[in-house]
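Shape is hard to put into words, and the shape of a protein is harder than most. The fold becomes a row of whole numbers, each drawn from a learned catalogue of backbone shapes. The outcome of that step, for a single protein, is printed below.
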Amino acid sequence: MMTSVYMSNMRPAYMSRAAELLGLPCEPLERLGVGWSPSHRATTWSMRDGSGDVIGIRLRCPSTGTKRAITGSRAGLIYDVRLLLIKAIERLYIVEGPTDTAAMLSIGCDAVGCPSAGCGADLLVELSRRIMPTEIVIIADADGPGVAGAERIADALLIVASVRIITPGDGAKDSRAWVVGGADRSIVDRVADAAPVRRLMIGGAS
């Protein structure tokens, strides 16, 4: 993968424009190692396995939001690799896709993006076993596939930690829209606090 090359291609002006189009600050994009591919005219987002290794690169057109992956990429998780160095994570948020991940980082949450609704459960289990969060909160996109996908991921992650599932408040369709619409960490945490806790019990989940 040409991750370092794409990152070196990213000029400050490009980063500022990409962040502006997303309605987010530059800092979370920088933490995720967002780069630029001149040949694709798209930003690049590294997808990782549970140990932090890059296994694929997602492309996103800044102006249209069109998404695709570089040939040979494997679908992976989107997260700041420094997450692996944190010793005690109380609450890990799982969202859908790279820009939702950036949005959650922008309000100070520890967050991981899955590649699409309900996908990447095995990688999420691997990562969660490494960082051992006290609790996992899945923010499902506010649609049928998003909620169904969150349920599948929750079932897989119960072997690691207790899990809550929420959807964005204020009528937002996803985490980024929620944050851009004004949600801060206190609001997101409050919604998470109100959601029922699921734990793995003998004989199944509760």
About this structure: The chain has one domain: 3-205. The CA atoms of residues 103 and 176 lie 5 Å apart. Residues 3-205 form a domain with the Dna Topoisomerase Vi A Subunit; Chain: A, domain 2 fold (CATH 3.40.1360.10). The longest helix spans residues 144-157.
